[in-house]
Write a structure and sequence with these properties.
The protein is of the alpha/beta class. Helix 21 (604-621) packs parallel to helix 26 (705-725) and helix 25 (692-699) runs antiparallel to helix 26.
Length: 786
């Protein structure tokens, strides 16, 4: 056992920035993570390499690769003048250095420190990044030096001198040229140095190369410098823009690339990894300093564990003992019991051997200390590929966002785990969709997550993150949806405003998609600020990142010119508002697995309602649970374990239990009411179907939130108990007929039945003993009553 004192300096993550496949910035990345978007695509031959030149399904063919997909960053517009770089230096500067500047700017601005903030110049700010040794420009510049071989080949072929010169010139023109700035432009350490230079930072600037663990190696150093007071703020993370044919060849010839060109971590179908590229950076401070400065804090780094494999069978083979040592070191440094962790962002490359080794290490560290299927495990590589030097940064950012937004995030393509892992009998489960991260009634510690990254050469790292605030106080908006709102005295004025909006959002030449979406966001915000609901004509447009704005504007103009009707996603109104607003709340039977999950994950008042419902459910129903159910929380029923652990039909059946369904429906209805209230949407009248009457009473202001959920729990508990104690728990029959006809039917039958619910003028529910209900159903069929 370790006897040394664990690390006591907590480190706050106060800013983040990133460019990853499918993501121009942090909100884009959150959108991708939350929605489980697959950003793995075919090799883009306009920016990378031609598949026809290098693909061969035979892995043994020299100088060819069998994998044709990966994760590639979107096209980014880069303005060298913004960073004081002469335009003619661009071709001699590695993409990693250029985009590194962009992401550093994003992360600093996210932390509240714009480029010329005085703290950056006077404070001790360092830049420590994970960057691997091989950079983009090394390959073409090195290739130019093969010209003697080309000449010898041409001479041996008897090519005439004049033609030989033309051939040589053509080959050389295909590569970047050597110039004065080439040497600094190709060096990995200058990725950090250029940031320190352009942002006037005086602290340490360096890079760490631990292969695919590089960004966690950099994080480890940054945390140590902060803990030792060598700096007051640190920019750290990982940068990897190398996804060319050379890198694909490196991985293909070690046999770790996927033969089906996809990444499926921990899956029964896993057959290797796919390569990704990207940049992720974090801005760190000592927690006490961040609190003093009132910085926004995403999460707290509690510890970073490290270990080497030592002597093993092969330099590139993963080793469970080395990984386990890194895990144990991390939790020792953090002073945290692994049993308190709720989410593991694994290295999870999708190679069967690597994933099994990692899973063995995790189970040996966590297995005996945690309840079965209680820790969500996954890997962002299923969405963006293996981003190598930036892989750990992608994992840290994912975990920090999960803790900040209180959401367990999904892993793709792993619905059925590798049977060799026996994951269903472990502490872990593969989470395949986003769901709110609600603490259980017995949880005494904050939400926590662990993040692993491992590199060739036996480099093992594991970081432990903890939420900063147990409560959710912000809306987890991902920026993918915008509402543009327009109002005017007449239709002509409205059309003029639509035309002006179209002009303002029209992209400039060379703008990338990220810049276009930001321009639309600014203009949509401006439109809402000038909107006047009292004007004669009004129009709203819902702009989504997947909807063409030009087509939407055409639709909007047509609606205005024809004076309606509205059609999603364009909404038109004219004249004063007519009628009143009513809220109708559903009753039991409306429940379904995962209901309301997006609402709870996005809005703080919804999450608060769910947490309250979870507590009340446990307080009032725990004595009615079976021994098998005793450990289950309300959210275990609402957001059940994935299908590989529990069949969907079982999850649906469990949620139908009266004592569960009523509190669950109450929680969702309360959340909806509170969110609508946030936007000032209040009902003139409320109505509820069956159980929904309680929710209607709350929305009308007659009972408070706690009373609503307590009544739901007690009502559900006693109704369920009554059903269990009776030899026949009774049945219900929905009858499609007017009330008079139903009452006449019951009178004719003369059975022990009542018209329990008058749902509408033409639909009611009959209730009573099951044999009598069966007779009533038979009578309805005979009279052709549905």
């Amino acid at each position: 056992m370790r006897q040394d004192t664990p690390q006591t300096t907590d480190i706050a993550i106060i800013g983040m920035g990133c460019i990853f496949p499918g993501s121009f910035h942090l909100k884009d990345f959150w959108h991708l993570l939350f929605n489980g978007t697959d950003a793995i695509k075919d090799i883009p031959d306009d920016t990378h390499w031609q598949i026809k030149d290098y693909f061969d399904p035979d892995p043994s063919r020299p100088d060819h690769t069998y994998c044709i997909r990966g994760g590639f960053v979107p096209k980014i517009s880069f303005d060298p003048a913004a960073f004081g770089i002469p335009p003619n230096n661009i071709t001699a500067t590695d993409t990693a250095q250029l985009l590194g500047l962009e992401v550093a700017k994003m992360a600093l601005e996210d932390a509240g420190y714009a480029k010329d903030h005085p703290f950056l110049a006077r404070g001790r700010v360092n830049v420590i990044l994970g960057v691997t040794g091989t950079q983009e420009l090394v390959i073409p510049l090195g290739a130019r030096l093969g010209h003697p071989i080309w000449k010898n080949a041409l001479d041996a072929a008897g090519i005439p001198s004049e033609q030989k010169k033309q051939v040589l010139d053509f080959i050389q023109s295909s590569y970047a040229q050597w110039q004065e700035n080439s040497f600094p432009g190709l060096l990995g350490n200058v990725v950090a140095g250029r940031i320190a230079n352009r942002f006037n930072l005086s602290g340490t600037n360096s890079v760490s190369d631990a292969a695919c663990a590089s960004s966690l190696a950099a994080l480890h150093t940054a945390v140590m410098e902060l803990a030792a007071h060598k700096c007051d703020m640190s920019i750290t993370g990982g940068v990897d823009c190398l996804n060319d044919i050379f890198m694909h060849m490196c991985f293909a010839k070690t046999g770790v690339l996927s033969h089906t060109s996809d990444a499926r971590p921990f899956s029964k179908d896993a057959d290797g990894t796919v390569l990704g590229e990207g940049i992720g950076m974090l801005v760190l401070k000592r927690l006490a300093d961040a609190q003093k400065n009132k910085d926004r804090i995403y999460a707290v780094i509690k510890g970073v564990g490290t270990a080497s494999d030592g002597k093993t069978s092969a330099i590139y083979a993963p080793d469970a003992k080395g990984q386990r040592r890194a895990l144990q070191d991390a939790y020792h440094q953090a002073g945290i019991d692994p049993a308190s962790v709720g989410m593991i962002e694994a290295h999870g490359t999708g190679t069967r051997v690597g994933d099994k080794v990692e899973f063995d290490a995790l189970t040996s560290c966590f297995g005996a200390q945690k309840a079965k299927n209680s820790i969500a495990i996954g890997s962002v590589k299923s969405m963006i590929g293996h981003t190598k030097a930036a892989a750990g940064a992608a994992g840290i950012i994912k975990a920090a966002l999960a803790l900040h937004h209180k959401v367990i995030l999904p892993t793709l393509k792993a619905d059925m785990p590798d049977p060799d892992l026996d994951i269903n009998n472990s502490a872990f489960y593969l989470n395949n969709r986003s769901k709110p991260w609600v603490l259980g009634s017995k949880d005494t510690s904050p939400r926590r997550a662990g993040i692993s990254a491992f590199g060739f050469g036996g480099s093992n790292f594991h970081a432990v993150l903890e939420e900063y605030d147990a409560g959710k106080s912000h809306v987890s908006w991902d920026g993918s949806v915008q509402i543009a709102a327009f109002s005017a005295p007449d239709a002509t004025g409205l059309l003029e405003k639509l035309a002006a909006f179209e002009t303002r959002i029209t992209p400039d030449p060379g703008m990338d998609d990220g810049e276009i979406s930001r321009r639309i966001a600014w203009q949509a915000t401006a439109s809402r600020q000038s909107f006047n609901a009292d004007q004669e004509v009004r129009l709203l447009m819902v702009l989504h990142k997947d909807i063409d704005p030009a087509a939407l504007l055409d639709q909007a103009r047509t609606v205005v010119e024809k004076q309606g009707p509205s059609r999603d996603p364009v909404y038109y109104g004219s004249g004063p508002a007519k009628g009143k607003l009513g809220f109708l709340f559903p009753g039991q039977g409306s429940q379904y697995p995962d209901m309301g999950k997006d609402l709870f994950a996005v809005f703080p008042e919804a999450m608060k309602a769910l947490a309250l419902a979870q507590k009340i459910f446990k307080d009032y129903t725990s004595d009615s649970l079976t021994p098998e159910e005793a450990h289950q929380e309300l959210t275990d029923f609402m957001f059940a374990l994935p299908g590989h652990v529990q069949d969907k039909s079982v999850s649906e059946s469990n949620l139908r239990h009266t004592r569960v369904a009523q509190v669950a429906i109450g929680a969702v209805s309360l959340a909806m009411t509170l969110v609508l209230r946030r936007f000032g949407i209040l009902p003139h009248l409320t109505c509820g179907h069956s159980f929904g009457e309680l929710c209607a009473l709350h929305a009308a202001g007659w009972i408070d939130e706690k009373t609503l959920l307590t009544l739901a729990a007690v009502r559900g508990k006693h109704m369920a108990a009554a059903g269990k104690t009776a030899s026949d728990s009774g049945s219900m029959l929905a009858v499609q007929a007017d009330m008079a006809r139903i009452e006449a039917l019951l009178l004719d039958l003369d059975l022990d039945l009542v018209l329990a619910n008058r749902n509408s003028p033409n639909q009611g529910v009959v209730s009573g003993p099951t044999p009598d209900i069966e007779k009533a159903a038979k009578a309805c069929r005979k009279q052709k009553i549905r």
